[in-house]
Design brief:
alpha+beta; 8 helices; 18% strand; elongated
């Protein structure tokens, strides 16, 4: 049976007898007891409900996306919209967790990507299904060109700005990657204005850092990358979780990021190869996707 709404608030006649505000719109005889959530027609009984659905080809299910004017918008409409958005969120989440992502084909592609990275001396690791970085990652390897096209995130801490780049070829230098952002001539005007502190600074003050993975949470360190070398050359010998995240900082400004080797208490050697049991807690458990 269709969803049924109760009758509108009754009123009383002078004699005290209850009178419905509406009559059944199907038989026009009896007082209305129900209202169809779909077409808002009034009915007095189950028989009339069925008749109106047949006559109007109405399914009796409320249209959750139907237009409601501001003047008619009530708390019930607001609650309905909220529940509708919750349903959409659940559906989207269920789709993301669908069995399709566990199919052997998807696993083979991830395994192939990791193997290609390993041949380039890059330790590429994948997060479990459901993690944001796993869903975001668009990194691919084009066999015909023997080249990675990386999903890349640029973070500019001094301006609290982040930019995501897709399909960045691995043979592109870091300097060229940064040009559209901090080059005073080639950068986009809007981006240039937002990153003004970078664009007015000498290029020699720009440092590109990448977090060293698999360190204890209380000993976060960064590797400094070479802007004149390609992205591939800079990633060699590093552990990458899903995709690279590069932090662009200025030497002249104070930064809490400690570069490996610049701390007198530890040697200047890479710690990317440390035990995976000490992976960053913010990334969650790293699992082998093969």
């Amino acid at each position: 049976m269709a969803e049924l709404e109760g009758p509108e608030s009754p009123r009383r006649s002078s004699g005290g007898r209850k009178m419905s505000l509406q009559r059944c719109e199907t038989c026009s005889k009896e007082e209305a007891k129900y209202r169809c959530p779909r077409c808002m027609k009034y009915s007095c009984s189950l028989l009339c409900v069925k008749k109106h659905k047949l006559a109007l080809s109405c399914n009796g299910v409320r249209d959750k996306t139907a237009y409601v004017s501001v003047n008619e918008f009530t708390d019930l409409n607001l609650l309905s919209d909220y529940r509708f958005l919750e349903d959409v969120g659940r559906t989207a989440d269920a789709a993301a967790r669908h069995l399709a992502v566990h199919r052997p084909t998807a696993k083979r592609l991830l395994s192939s990507l990791r193997n290609k990275a390993q041949k380039c001396n890059i330790d590429l690791r994948m997060l479990p299904i459901g993690f944001t970085k796993r869903r975001e990652n668009s990194t691919t390897f084009k066999s015909t060109e023997n080249k990675f096209y990386w999903h890349l995130k640029l973070v500019f801490p001094h301006c609290h700005a982040e930019y995501t780049l897709k399909r960045v070829p691995d043979d592109k230098t870091l300097a060229d990657i940064l040009k559209p952002y901090i080059d005073p001539v080639e950068s986009d005007p809007v981006v240039c204005q937002r990153l003004k502190i970078y664009t007015v600074s000498p290029q020699s003050d720009v440092r590109i850092l990448m977090k060293i993975e698999n360190r204890r949470q209380n000993s976060v360190r960064y590797n400094e990358l070479d802007a004149s070398r390609s992205l591939l050359d800079n990633l060699k010998g590093k552990v990458i979780i899903e995709y690279p995240t590069l932090f662009v900082v200025l030497k002249t400004l104070k930064s809490d990021m400690v570069v490996l080797g610049q701390d007198a208490s530890e040697p200047a050697e890479s710690s990317d190869g440390e035990s995976s049991s000490r992976s960053s807690m913010e990334e969650g458990e790293i699992r082998d996707s093969s």
